[in-house]
Every structure is written in C-alpha cells, then in structure tokens.
Specification:
With 376 residues, the protein is mainly alpha-helical. 82% of the residues lie in helices and 0% in strands. The protein starts with a helix and ends with a helix. The N terminus is likely disordered.
Length: 376
C-alpha cells in the first residue's frame, strides 16, 4: 500500500508541469495554424484544449509550489500521509525536509504543527501554526488549531479570540462552534456553551459529539433530566458511541435509576473495554448501591488503564474506607496520602466536585477521611 501512496504523490507532483507541457504544445500548434491562416483548425484545436486553457491558471495558482519545488511538495505529501498512519516521527522528518527546501508554503508548517500537536509538544506546534499564519493570514485551520492549544493551556481569552476569527471567516465550519462550546464550558460559561452546541446540532443533526458535550454541560449545571435526554438522543444518532452510554449511565446513577444505569455501564464497557471511564462509572454505581468490593474491583481496573485517573483514584479511597474494617481503613488512608502527595490539589473538595465531578456520596466519605487526618 505504501508504494501506491508513493506513486500517487509522485503523479501529483508531476501533474502541474505535465499540464504546462500540454499548454506549450497547444501554443506552438496554434502559432503554426495562425501563420498558415487556418483559422477553422485553430478554432477546433481551441475547443479541444478549452478545459486546460480555462483551469490551468487556477491550478497553477494553487499548485505553483509543486512546479517550482517538486521535491518539497513530495516530502510534504509523504509527511502528511505518514501522519495519517500514526507514524509521527517519520512524518516530522519528511516535513522538516519540505520546509528546508521551500519555507514559503503555509501548509508545510501547518502539517508539521499537526504532527507536533499529536505529540503534545505545544510550544513547537504553536510556533508552526504561527509560521503558517504569517505566510497565509487567512488560513482558518491554523487559527482553529492554535485555539485548541490555548484551551489546553487554559488561556481561554486567547482561545476564544482565535476561534472567533475562524467563525467570522468560515461560519460554515461547524467544528469551530463545537470547540468554542468546549472553551465556554471550561470557563464555566455554560449558557454560551449550550447555545453553541445547539447550533452544531441544528446545522448537523448527526454530530454525535455535540450531543455528548451538550449533555455534559447540562450535567455541570446539575440538570440531570436534560443530560439524560440529550445522551439518549446521542445514542439514537449513533448506537455504538460508547461515551454516550457511559455518560448516561452516570447521570442515571445520580438519579437513582440504578438498574438502567448498570445496563448502560456494562454496554459502555463492551464498546470501550480499554477506556478507564466506563469502569469508573460502573464502580460508582456499585458504590452508590453499597456493593463496595465490586466498586473497589472496578475502580482498580480504571486506575490500571489510566493511573492518573483522579475520579477512579478518589473513588477507590472512599470505597475502601466505606467497606470498613481495620485493614481496609488503613489501605484507604495509605492510598489517600499517596494521592495527596502526588496531587496536592486533590485535598480541595470544591476541585473534586467541579473539576473531577466526584458525586456527593463519595465526597462525603472523603470529607470524613480528611477530618480524621486533621484530628490525627
């Protein structure tokens, strides 16, 4: 398959000069016919070459760099292909070479920025997107990616500025509204986030991620009924979208609908067996129904998949403590101290509630553990 990709890349690189060659051939034939006074043949020849005569100026405008720097074009195309295959380090090597050969093409920097973004190299990625925008200030995709980085770095004002530029310049780009909704959500501006998610759904009713984000925003507002309803819509749009089942399971558990919540959690695990969230959700259901050994087992599975999963780590502490008995209480205390040592902000109950979304029942148990620590 890789040789097919190489061939496609090569053909794309030589297509522009091939068109130029055909055009030159036409001009030479046309001059000969004019000299001979054969206007009728010139007219017929022009009709044959009309598509090239019409589209070649536009094509040259778009692909001129492929003519002037064909090697750079090939390196960029191969780099972009490798990036799609997940071979990021190899992609960066090709893209570096493309930029060395021709540093005047914005897409080369943008593609390398995408590669660095996939590696979570935010500074390198940001530098590449900035370079792309210097070369082409109206390239909205680089603004969108730069907004992503600003959001990840919690620079929400800068993120909003960039994503608003995208929406102004490309109002049909629905993903920009979805990203702005997430930024608003991170800021705590739930009303604005809800408005953007509704716009996404109205524009593209099959945009399942918008439903899930909308549901999460309703959940942050404490509107469990609306959250459940939106997650149900998401499942109707895509019956195999595991995150929708997971989130609906959690909301149903908070509403006391434990049987249906457990059904959703089990199905989410079936769809996402390597994701930590469904195990954490099912563990929460077990906790709320006082099935603490099963809660411990699932919280441990979630932690094994993602050791830094704070939701599961805190739930595991509370489950051991709630199970009772000297050994379990000591294990709860050991886990709690280890967790706080590596993440001091875990001690902040408002943080656990608003950012980690720990349910009230587990928070209450953590408060008891904290009180015991203070007394001790």
């Amino acid at each position: 398959m890789k040789y097919v990709n190489y061939l496609v890349t090569y053909l794309r690189a030589i297509l522009a000069p091939l068109i130029v060659g055909i055009l030159i051939g036409y001009l030479m034939a046309a001059v000969s016919l004019i000299i001979d006074g054969n206007i009728r043949s010139l007219f017929n020849l022009t009709l044959v070459f009309a598509p090239i005569l019409i589209f070649v100026p536009l094509y040259l405008q778009l692909k001129y760099h492929a003519i002037s720097h064909p090697a750079a074009f090939i390196f960029n195309e191969r780099g972009a292909s490798l990036l799609k295959e997940g071979r990021t380090d190899e992609a960066i090597l090709r893209l570096n070479r493309a930029i060395e050969l021709n540093p005047n093409i914005h897409t080369y920097f943008h593609n390398r920025g995408l590669a660095h973004f996939s590696q979570a190299k935010w500074d390198d990625s940001l530098a590449d997107f900035n370079s792309a925008l210097q070369l082409k200030p109206d390239f909205f995709m680089s603004y969108a990616m730069r907004a992503n980085i600003h959001m990840i770095q919690k620079q929400y004002a800068a993120a909003l500025q960039d994503i608003n530029i995208v929406i102004t310049r490309k109002p049909s780009y629905i993903y920009a509204y979805a990203l702005r909704g997430i930024i608003y959500q991170q800021e705590g501006n739930n009303a604005a986030a809800i408005e953007d998610y509704h716009h996404c759904i109205a524009s593209r009713p099959d945009f399942v991620e918008a439903y899930v984000n909308l549901g999460a925003t309703y959940s942050a507002q404490g509107n469990v009924d609306n959250a459940i309803a939106v997650y149900t819509q998401a499942i109707q749009v895509n019956p195999h979208y595991g995150l929708a089942y997971n989130n609906r399971a959690y909301e149903r558990a908070l509403a006391g609908q434990f049987d249906s919540a457990l059904d959703d959690a089990n199905y989410a695990i079936k769809l996402m067996p390597d994701h930590p969230n469904p195990f954490g959700t099912r563990a929460t259901i077990y906790y709320l129904t006082e099935r603490y050994p099963e809660a411990i087992n699932d919280f441990q599975k979630s932690c094994r998949i993602q050791p830094e999963h704070h939701f599961a780590s805190v739930g595991l502490v509370a489950s051991y403590h709630r199970l009772g008995g000297e050994v379990n209480m000591e294990e709860a205390l050991r886990l709690w101290r280890s967790l706080v040592a590596s993440n001091p902000h875990i001690k902040d109950l408002p943080y656990l509630e608003k950012k980690v979304h720990i349910p009230e029942q587990i928070l209450s148990e953590i408060a008891i553990i904290k009180a015991g620590e203070t007394t001790a």
